[in-house]
Design a protein that fits this description.
Subunit structure: Homohexamer; trimer of dimers.
Catalytic activity: Hydrolysis of terminal non-reducing alpha-L-arabinofuranoside residues in alpha-L-arabinosides
Number of helices: 9
Helix content: 10-25%
Largest sheet: 10 strands, mixed
Strand content: 25-35%
CATH architecture of the largest domain: Alpha-Beta Barrel
Strand order of the largest sheet: 23-22-26-20-19-16-1-21-25-24
Organism: Lederbergia galactosidilytica
CATH topology of the largest domain: TIM Barrel
Pfam family, one: Alpha-L-AF_C
Number of strands: 26
CATH superfamily of the largest domain: Glycosidases
Low-confidence stretches: none
Bound molecules: alpha-L-arabinofuranose
Enzyme class: hydrolase
Mean pLDDT: 97
Structural class: alpha/beta
Length: 495
């Protein structure tokens, strides 16, 4: 029994855009307020209102790009309410998410400051559903115009003399649903209209992202591409992984049977089919692959934790989530010629979060650790990998037991990311490395694993699941031989 993999270290394919490791932070539950923004007067240690512990943790995983302010929230957000002296800002009701009142203290200036602190590119999602063309156009003018204009002058009065650099701009969110319940034909026309007034000022060149399909709505992609492909730089796609069904019960994040482990991973793998099929449609209109597929919402979506506000989408995060993240990245890498950016939903305290907070406490989730371990793939060259895998059998159904991806970074180091999906059996691995002298290489590894399917970190035991060195890998001629424990995500580096 063996999983036999050949890694061609001298066959470099496309670059893995580091933006594949992007994030999404919406005004939802405790995602922004409490999770990121605590305000300058908070007893929680902060820098200009951003909590320091979360900031440091996010810096460590080198967040390349951050999407904001939504999500469904984006199509109800009126940016002018979120600028100027904080105490004078309009309070608002977040009707989508829990009906809570927000004080608008986290607005454009605070978001741009956060991105600067993180060294992340901002990705702003504009309001099509309930906003005007003028409002969207003026937001871009406010942020990026370097000169004399009503919006630029207003920005200066608000303490930002220089325009910001802004590349990524989304024209609406889920306009087939919470963003206006539109037909694709109608949205395509609106996209054409709105994006006309989203201007490039000076040398600030926007990368315009059209709102894309929900899951397998291939018709949406077809209509958008047919009617507007020459006016867009990116087209989005949203797909969430859940073992149950959206409206009737998604399943618990921590309390689940073996079958739900299997179904969750099976559904995570569905991302590969979705990308392949949506890409095939995009290829017809854009064979050169100029337009990026922007998967700006993905991740697990479980039932909210019992006792929490259901509108806040707060869920725990187990080793199962780590497997979902690892699988997604290996899939995204394979499609890196089309997939230019992805944004996990969401960064802190919401859905498949990297970080959970409770008052001044903070923990890093298993998903965080996958982002940390896999950051070596940022902007590296994808290597050609071929494999023959054992089957992970569950009743009548089966999946490949192992998922593998490999890249070569700018210093020539080779990084191999591995997932063993099987919840019971270790995986025998034989990784043949072609195109390098293995005996002369130094091999190091890290592994994230657990002995229970629901293993997770709590505020009492924040390091229950964390990566450890993985030394149990042998060099046998031109191959690496290893046993990858059940339920594990690992990374190997050869230098
Ligand atoms: O991420 C939570 C929500 O999921 C987003 O607001 C919306 O775009 C999607 O339906």
């Amino acid at each position: 029994m063996n999983n036999k993999v050949v890694i061609n270290t001298d066959v470099e394919k496309t670059k893995i855009n580091k933006n594949i490791y992007g994030h999404f932070a919406e005004h939802l539950g405790r995602g922004i307020y409490e999770g990121i923004w605590v305000g300058e007067d908070s007893p929680i240690p902060n820098t200009n209102g951003i909590r320091n512990d979360v900031l440091e943790a996010l810096k460590n995983i080198q967040v390349p790009v951050l999407r904001w302010p939504g999500g469904c929230f984006a199509d109800e957000y009126h940016w002018k309410d979120g600028i100027g002296p904080r105490e004078e800002r309009k309070r608002m009701v977040n009707t989508h998410w829990g009906g809570v009142v927000e004080n608008n203290h986290f607005g454009t200036h605070e978001f741009m400051m956060l991105c600067e602190m993180l060294g992340a590119e901002p990705y702003i999602c504009g309001n099509v559903g309930s906003g005007t063309v003028q409002e969207m156009s003026e937001w871009v003018e406010y942020m990026t115009f370097d000169g004399e204009s009503p919006m630029a002058n207003w920005r200066k009065e608000n303490g930002q003399p220089e325009p910001w650099k802004l590349k990524y701009f989304g024209v609406g969110n889920e306009n087939w649903g919470c963003g206006g319940n539109m037909r694709p034909e109608y949205y395509a026309d609106l996209y054409r209209r709105y994006q006309t007034y989203v201007r490039n000022y000076g040398d600030n060149k926007l990368y315009k992202i059209a709102g894309g399909a929900n899951v397998d709505d291939y018709r949406w992609t077809e209509v958008l591409m047919k009617n507007a492909h020459w006016l867009m730089d990116g087209l989005s796609l949203h797909y969430y992984t859940m073992p149950g069904e959206f409206w009737t019960g998604k399943g618990s994040a921590t309390d689940f049977p073996e079958e739900e482990w299997f179904i969750t991973l099976q559904r995570a793998l569905h991302m590969n089919t979705l990308i392949t099929r949506h890409s095939a449609i995009m290829d017809q209109y854009d064979p050169e692959k100029r337009i990026g597929m922007i998967i700006d919402e993905w991740g697990t979506w479980f039932d909210p934790e019992p006792g929490t506000n259901p509108g806040f989408l707060y869920q725990q995060n187990t080793i199962r989530d780590a497997l979902v993240a690892g699988l997604h990245f290996n899939i995204f890498h394979e499609h890196a010629d089309r997939v230019q950016m992805t944004n996990i939903a969401q960064t802190v305290n919401v859905l498949q979060a990297m970080i959970l907070t409770e008052g001044e406490k903070m923990l890093l989730t298993p998903t965080y650790h996958v982002f940390d371990m896999f950051k070596v793939h940022h902007d590296a060259s994808l290597l050609q990998v071929d494999g023959q895998f054992e089957q992970y059998q569950f009743g009548e159904k089966s999946l490949p037991q192992v998922s593998v991806s490999a890249s070569k970074d700018k210093d020539g180091k080779v990084h191999i990311s591995l997932c063993n999906l099987d919840h019971k059996n270790e995986a025998d691995l034989n990784l043949e490395l072609r195109g390098l002298e293995l005996s002369a290489s130094k091999v190091s590894g890290k592994i994230l694993t657990a002995s229970e399917m629901d293993a997770h970190n709590t505020f009492e035991q924040p390091e229950n699941v964390k990566p450890v060195e993985w030394t149990d890998v042998k060099i046998e001629k031109q191959s690496l031989a290893a046993k990858l424990p059940a339920m594990s995500v690992a990374i190997l580096t050869l230098e």
